[in-house]
């Protein structure tokens, strides 16, 4: 259904400035942008609220959280997907890369089991027009797991697969360079006993030695032959980034050190950091703070990671702290992730791009802090929230 909507009295966050004016969407695209007021009949008055491009989220674990809300507790696929989609839209995200992990020795975990049912549910909901956001797939491949390639099979040639990231969570390196941080995570979130943690750590290095290299070669080759974007994960050293660059990666997700982030920039890889890292003031794993990378000019993309609402909150926090301008901060959650994942048709307020739009009001809290409140969301000109 083709529709035309005129928005007036909007603080439009453009690529380089904020402009008070009007915008017209028609047939799912941005048709016209103008500064100043408009006399168009029936225009939607945003009353000075901000009008932003819809957020583009390229790494969220949120669907996994809805599918398994507690350890070993499975939720039905349809309600889990719909709840995830609603939460994503409410956060202002109009394009989402659902990050699904493949590869884990524990067959009772999500990442140790097949994703066939989830993919069928996603396809069905899309065909029936049940989803608010535009869903893509980001497959996170755990390289040392024996069953990673086997569990990747349902994603092979899937039309929604747009991004693959290479992970290695072997304790003692990358994200878990500090063993004690790993211990807190696995005994806390995963519910492992101290004995199981020690046993798994000892066995992890055996698995890494046997499987990590051949699995890495398989997925790098798959991305090259299928035109899939490739991301490295938890780069810690310059050598990690150099290897990712040689393999064709376009993104370095969650670099754990300034040195890795610098090398990523030097080699043209976009750096991706988590919104929760910014909002909380640091990494839950004890690694480099996203705020520090932003101050150094080494932060390109913000991801919600495990809290959908953190994308917009983190962008506003970086503006409030005078680290980035508002257009710069919004670019980290819109245009830059869109381009990095090959979606050049969205992510900015510009004529001809998709009319993926969000209306945002800035609330001022009692302590003076500003918080972005999503008031409405449009995807391709259609209001979805």
Question: Can you walk through the features of this model?
Answer:
The structure is a single chain. The protein is 35% helix and 26% strand. The longest helix is centred in the middle third of the chain and has 33 residues, at 194-226. Strands 1, 2, 3, 4, 5, 14, 15 and 16 form an eight-stranded mixed sheet that branches. It is an alpha/beta fold and 385 residues long.
**Beta strand count:** 16
Rounded mean pLDDT score? 90
C-alpha Rg, in Å? 21 Å
- The tally of helices reads 13
Instruction: Estimate percent helicity.
Output: 25-40%
Which blocks of ≥5 consecutive residues have pLDDT under 50? none
What is the first-to-last residue Cα distance?
Answer: 17 Å
Strand content: 25-35%
- Decide which structural class fits the backbone: alpha/beta
Taking the sheet with the most strands, its summary is: 8 strands, mixed
Write down the secondary-structure element order.
Answer: EEEEEEHHEHEHEHHEHEHEHHEHHHEEE
């Amino acid at each position: 259904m083709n529709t035309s909507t005129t928005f007036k009295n909007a603080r439009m966050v453009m690529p380089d400035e904020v402009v008070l004016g009007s915008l017209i969407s028609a047939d799912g695209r941005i048709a016209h942008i103008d500064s100043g007021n408009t006399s168009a009949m029936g225009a939607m008055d945003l009353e000075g609220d901000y009008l932003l491009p819809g957020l583009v989220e390229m790494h969220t674990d949120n669907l996994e959280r809805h599918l398994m809300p507690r350890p070993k507790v499975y939720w039905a696929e349809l309600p889990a997907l719909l709840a995830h989609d609603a939460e994503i839209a409410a956060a202002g995200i109009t394009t989402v890369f659902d990050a699904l992990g493949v590869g884990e020795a524990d067959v009772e975990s999500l990442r140790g089991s097949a994703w066939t049912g989830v993919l069928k549910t996603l396809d069905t909901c899309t065909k029936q027009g049940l989803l608010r956001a535009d869903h893509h797939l980001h497959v996170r491949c755990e390289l040392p797991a024996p069953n990673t390639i086997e569990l990747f099979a349902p994603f092979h040639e899937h039309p929604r697969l747009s991004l693959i990231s290479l992970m290695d969570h072997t304790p003692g390196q990358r994200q878990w360079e500090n063993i004690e941080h790993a211990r807190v995570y696995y005994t806390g979130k995963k519910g492992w006993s101290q004995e199981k943690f020690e046993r798994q750590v000892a066995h992890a290095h055996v698995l890494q030695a046997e499987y990590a290299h051949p699995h890495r070669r398989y997925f790098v080759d798959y991305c090259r032959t299928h035109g899939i974007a490739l991301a490295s994960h938890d780069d810690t050293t310059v050598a990690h980034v150099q290897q990712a660059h040689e393999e064709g990666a376009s993104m370095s997700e969650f670099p754990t050190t300034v040195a890795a982030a610098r090398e990523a920039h030097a080699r043209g890889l976009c750096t991706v950091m988590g919104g929760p890292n910014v909002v909380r003031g640091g990494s839950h794993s004890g690694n480099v703070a996203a705020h520090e990378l932003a101050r150094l000019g080494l932060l390109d993309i913000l991801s919600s990671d495990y809290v959908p609402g953190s994308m917009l909150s983190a962008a506003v926090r970086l503006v409030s702290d005078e680290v980035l301008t508002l257009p710069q901060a919004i670019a980290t959650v819109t245009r830059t992730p869109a381009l990095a994942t090959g979606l050049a048709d969205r992510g900015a307020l510009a004529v001809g791009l998709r009319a993926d739009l969000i209306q945002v009001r800035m609330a001022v809290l009692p302590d003076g802090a500003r918080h972005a409140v999503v008031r409405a969301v449009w995807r391709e000109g259609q209001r979805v929230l």
